[in-house]
Specification:
Distance between the termini: 31 Å
Strand order of the largest sheet: 1-2-3-4
Number of helices: 2
Helix content: 25-40%
Number of domains: 1
Length: 83
């Protein structure tokens, strides 16, 4: 069974799905003509990216990093919060 999480609001919709190679694909759209696919090694990183999308739309802000840079930064943050 493939795991999948879906979120939608008026600004965008997103789906996180487990891939056949056990990575996690975040697909999202802004309901215009744009759709993006981002792949992450861990579910928790994909969830943090989704949380960032929600926050960006709520505050009308933009990303300051691409998916690759984000994954490293999110992993470091999550690691720093656990002991």
């Amino acid at each position: 069974m493939t795991e999948q999480i879906t979120y939608a609001n008026r600004e965008f919709s997103a789906t996180i799905a487990q891939t056949s190679d056990n990575t996690w694909k975040l697909t999202w759209t802004d309901y215009v003509a744009n759709e993006w696919d981002e792949t992450f090694e861990a579910l928790e990183i994909a969830l943090v990216r989704l949380a960032l999308l929600v926050r960006a739309t709520q505050r009308d802000e933009f990303f300051s990093t691409g998916p690759d840079q984000f994954e490293r930064a999110a992993d470091a943050f999550l690691t720093s919060q656990l002991s």
